Amino acid sequence: MKAIVFDSHGGPDVLKYTDVPEPTLRPTDVLVRVKACALNHLDLWVRRGIPGVPIPLPHIPGSDISGEIAQIGADVTTVRVGQKVVLAPLVSCGKCTACVAGLDNHCRQATNLGYMIDGGCAEFVRAPEVNILPYPENLSFEEAASIPLVFQTAWHMLVARAELQPGEDILVLGAGSGVGSSAIQIAKFFGARVIATAGSDEKLAKAKELGADDLINHKTQKIRDEVRRITNKRGVDVVFEHVGTATWDDSLASLAAGGRLVTCGATTGYEAKVDLRFLFSRQLSLLGSYMGAKSELHAVMKLVAAGHLKPIVDRVFPLAEAAAAHAYLESGSQFGKVVLRV
Ligand SMILES: [Zn+2]
What we know:
six-stranded parallel beta sheet, alpha/beta, 25% strand, 28% helix, seven-stranded mixed beta sheet, globular, 11 helices, binds zinc ion, 17 strands
């Protein structure tokens, strides 16, 4: 089969479009004929190499996958060949205490398709039967592939971790990113007031279309000052963080007393400072969040099928042009997802 493979870490040019053997199935696996694979910042980290994470090489990246079932393992009972599917990215052991409690994102053996195991930047990918999600028939393959990782992450952050309430004020950083555009929609669905930031007025206009109530251009305005102005000096109840070093100080300073900051990433760096006097005297909560449970993704898929949440596709590249797609994602000029069509 054709696949995007790299055998050493580095820039986009390490991604080679080449022939590799098709995956072999275990009894509980399905083989998916990939139709689309959406990119994430995780793909960039995996390609560059992550200190202390020995990614098996050669490697096929790609975590967000839609396609059709091409073959099923001997013990697979819930799907048939030819069925359209979306895959949950997180592959866990299915047997540990966390997994049987439905908290598969706490499983110590959990990894993503395309992270420690081969992913979907290929004509075929192997996945466990339990990772199959119902296909929302109102979506193209490119749109369907754009849902899982970002919506699962944003949902877990806002619903499970920050416990966002109707009427609360939330600051969503990086509205143009996949998680940012997902978070705006989820926060509006739960009845919050959304203040969104982005680095261009064009991106802010799109954030407004998704339902953002107030907008901050972080290139020309100071986030904490604008939040104070918009909230009449009170600050926001929740800050949705994934940017890291570049925005951390503004994020903390934007919180109201009793506010919660929830973070799933650090695309600009992971060094951050916290003034502990500020943390305890204002009774703030700092919440880490990682991926989401499969059950949360099933809730997301239901709301997507009903039209309440929608994936935002920025641009589609052919699989063979994965290197160009990575470079484009790295440039940060997108609004929503960058997708490979297979
Ligand atoms: Zn487990």
